[in-house]
Amino acid sequence: MNLAELLLVPNTSWTEYVTTTPKKYPWKHFPIEASDSPDPLEKAKAAFHLLNPQPSRHWQTCLEQRHFADALRDGLRLADFPSQDIDRMNIQIRMSIKSVITSTALSQDEKKILADGVVPMKFYMTDDDITIRDATIFTRVHSPIKPVSVDVFWLWHHRMRLNDVEWYCSLMYRVLDPLTASNSRLNDTHSKPRLGQKGTY
């Protein structure tokens, strides 16, 4: 029989509790494992559980960039307080990833490996408790086969004005093939990309 733990917190202690009691928000299904091999491909296979990866001279850079992307993901503010449940936008991102991957004919482990390769690295949203006013989400989708990734940048703006509605939505992408040090800088995730042809930036 499973037992649920109930914790009662007095009103006078609520603020202290929610700011000092952290919750964990695990994003990955598989843990990052280490490899003693000097081969970057073997290290990447151990860390990210790749699916029949192809040889490439870019695996070392891919390994470094994926670790950095994971660190950015872990540093995102997922809730207002450390003890608060994850916010609804992050839940929606997880459910969207699951919905797309579930429709494939892959095995359960393969689906989890694909899901682990989808890494949101920037997340910003404001709302008025009814509608989302502004949102910026920057996500990198890593290939489980090659040192290749796709950056997806989504921008949303919505305002109710006196006589009309002010809004825009932009979905942009950038293919990094291969993922190299020159085209995969993640430090500047705060800048707004410029719209190019066919949605690329």
TrEMBL record:
This is Uncharacterized protein. It comes from Somion occarium. It comes from the Eukaryota.
